[in-house]
Specification:
By secondary structure, this protein is an alpha+beta fold. Helices cover 51% and strands 14% of the residues.
């Protein structure tokens, strides 16, 4: 707890911070301020901590969080995004094939927050010698899955964005 003062030493407000470990292995910093009292500042901080905890628990209950495995997230992505999409049956089957027969068996065991560009490139390199169309579909599907994870704030960047098709 800090008493924040201006350069002349005049009291401005009380300030408290708390570091909360997040699913990415990093920390979220929660800060509360009050001009009234230490007790009021602590009360505000506790309320913010409770709100932060509730938000993270809700994300886990809803089944989408950064420490979930890529396989679970990809299956969830397919069921929510593609399964009922307004596209042809052949297109849906193609996505289903990419997700369940190629992506999940090879890198589905890796946590979203631990997935690296090298993991994605290594998986794609296993398809060297296969048709360019299949490789492009796998790459495109993986990019779409991870793009959605970035939008949801589960990962900071799409690690599959720069992977290249093997020879």
């Amino acid at each position: 707890m800090y008493e924040v003062t201006d350069k002349d030493g005049k009291f401005l407000y009380y300030r408290m911070t708390k570091r909360m470990k997040n699913e990415d292995g990093g920390y979220d910093v929660i800060t509360a301020r009050s001009k009234h009292s230490e007790k009021d500042c602590r009360k505000k901080l506790n309320a913010k901590i409770a709100e932060w905890s509730a938000k993270h628990e809700e994300e886990k209950i809803n089944g989408v969080y950064s420490t979930m495995k890529l396989g679970n997230y990809a299956e969830n992505w397919y069921n929510l995004t593609i399964k009922n999409a307004n596209c042809s049956r052949a297109n849906k089957e193609s996505y289903k094939n990419q997700v369940f027969n190629h992506i999940i068996p090879r890198i589905g065991h890796i946590k979203l927050c631990d997935l690296t560009e090298d993991d994605c490139q290594q998986m794609l390199n296993e398809y060297a010698g296969w048709s360019k169309t299949l490789i492009d579909k796998i790459r495109m599907t993986l990019r779409r899955i991870l793009r959605k994870a970035v939008k949801e704030g589960l990962i900071k960047r799409n690690v599959a964005e720069d992977i290249v098709r093997p020879e």
